[in-house]
Amino acid sequence: MYEFSRSVNSMHSEDIKQLMKQSSGRGLISFAGGMPNNDLFPIAEIDEIYNNLSDDIKKLCFQYGPTTGYPPLVSSLHKMMRRKGMQSEKNKILITTGSLQAISIITQEFVNEGDLILTENPCFVGAISVFETFGAKMVSVPIDENGILIDKLKETISVQKTKPKFLYITPNFHNPAGIIYSQERRRQLLEVLSGTDIILIEDDAYGDLFFSDKDKPLTQSVKSMANSEVEVIYTGSFSKILGPGFRLGYMVASPEIFDKAESIKQAQDACTSNFTQILANEFVSKGYLDDYLMFLRKEYAQRKEILQKSLKNFLPKGISWIEPKGGFYMWLKLPAPLKATPIFRDCLKKGVVFVTGRTFDPDNVKDDHLRLSFSNMPKSDIGKGIKMLSEVIKKHMELNAVQFQ
C-alpha cells in the first residue's frame, strides 16, 4: 500500500470529480456544470486574432513567459481594474492558470495545516477543496439574499481562539447561491474586518455577467471600496467569458503579497501559457471584449428567463429560490425533511442531473438545497429538464408527507 499524504484526502475533491462526470454525461439533461455553452465561444474572433498575429508574436505564443504574466496582458488588466475602481498604482497583478490557482497560491502563502479560515456557507466547492488540501480548518458563516450575515460573522470572529487567516467570499452572482451582495452589506463587511488583520479574498469570476445595465453598479468590487484598514486580495477569471479552456485567471494584491505569490507560482508551474495570454490580450486590447460581453449577457439572460418560467410552471409549492441578476446559477431550497441527494439519485435515473447542496457545505452536511446551472444548457432542454425534476420532487414530497398542492 502507498503512503499518501493527508492532502489527497479532500472529500470535496471527490465531489468535483463526480461533478465533472455529471456535466458531460451523454444523453443527460445537465444542470450540473457551471460552464459556458460551447456554441457561445468566440471562435471566429479568435481565428481572426491568431491569423493576424505577426510571425514573431506567433513564435512567442509557443515560448516560456514571465512568471508574473505576459506584460501586455498585465497592462490590459490594470486598465480593466481601474475601470472597476481599483487603484492601479497600489496593486500588482499576477496572471494565474485559472482563478483557482490564484486561490491555491493565496492559501499556500498564508495557511499552515490547522490554521483557521472563514468561508461563506454555501461556498464555491473548488475553493473548499483547495482549503482542505492545505489542511485548513474552515469555519463557515451563512448568507442570505444580500450577502454574508454580518451579526453571524461578528459572533464567529469573536468566539475563535485564534485569528482567522482570511475570509473568502464570492460577492457577485455567487456560486452556488446566485445572489449579489448589496452595497450596504459590502460596507458592513469592511467595517467588521477593519483593524482585525483578517485578509479578505474577493473571488469575482462572474461580475461582468449582469443581465441588466441597471444592475452594473451593484457589482462594484469590495476591493475598490476598502481603505487601508482592510487588506483585500481580488481574484478574477477569463473562464466564464472567453472560455475555461484558456485557463486564465489573475490576482490583484499589494506588492508584499504579490512578491511571495510570484515565488509560489514559479515553483508550481513556472508560468501560465503564453499562447492563451497573447490571444486574450489581443481580444481585450483590440476591443472585442465589450461587444462579446453584451452578447453573453443577452444569451444568459434568455436562459435564466426560460428557467425562471419553467420553475414557476412546474415546481410544486414549497420550493423557494431567489431569481439571480446575473451569473450562471439558481439555488433551490427544499422544504423539510426533503434532502437533495436522494432526489438526485432518482433524477439521474430519469436522465436529468444537478448538484446537491451538500457539495457546497464546507462541513459536507447540509443537503436541503440544489444548484441549477443554466449557462451550459441548450434552451430547448431547460423546460424538459425542470419538468422531469419536478416529477421526482413531487414523488419525494408524497413519500415524506409534505404538502405540495
Structure description:
By secondary structure, the protein is of the alpha/beta class. The chain has two domains: 12-34 and 295-399, Aspartate Aminotransferase, domain 1; 43-288, Type I PLP-dependent aspartate aminotransferase-like (Major domain) (Aspartate Aminotransferase, domain 2, 3-Layer(aba) Sandwich), CATH 3.40.640. It is built from 14 helices and 13 strands. The protein has an eight-stranded mixed sheet, sandwiched between helices. Helix 12 (288-314) packs parallel to helix 14. It is globular and about 65 Å long. The termini are far apart. The mean pLDDT is 94.
What are the salient characteristics of this protein?
405 residues; alpha/beta; Aspartate Aminotransferase, domain 1; 2 domains; eight-stranded mixed beta sheet; 14 helices; globular
Strand order of the largest sheet: 2-9-8-7-6-3-4-5
Helix content: 40-55%
Main pleated-sheet profile: 8 strands, mixed
The helix-strand sequence is HEHHHEHEHEEHEHEHEEHHHEHEEEH
What is the CATH topology descriptor of the largest domain? Aspartate Aminotransferase, domain 2
Number of helices: 14
Count all strands and give the number: 13
Superfamily (CATH H level) name of the largest domain = Type I PLP-dependent aspartate aminotransferase-like (Major domain)
Which descriptor suits the 3D outline? globular
Instruction: Please give the CATH architecture of the largest domain.
Output: 3-Layer(aba) Sandwich
Structural class: alpha/beta
**How big is the Rg?**
21 Å
End-to-end Cα distance, whole Å, is 55 Å
Q: Give the number of domains.
A: 2
The low-pLDDT segments are none
The level 1 CATH classification of the largest domain is Alpha Beta
Instruction: Please indicate the percent range of residues in DSSP E strands (runs of 2 or more).
Output: 5-15%
Q: Mean of the pLDDT scores? A: 94
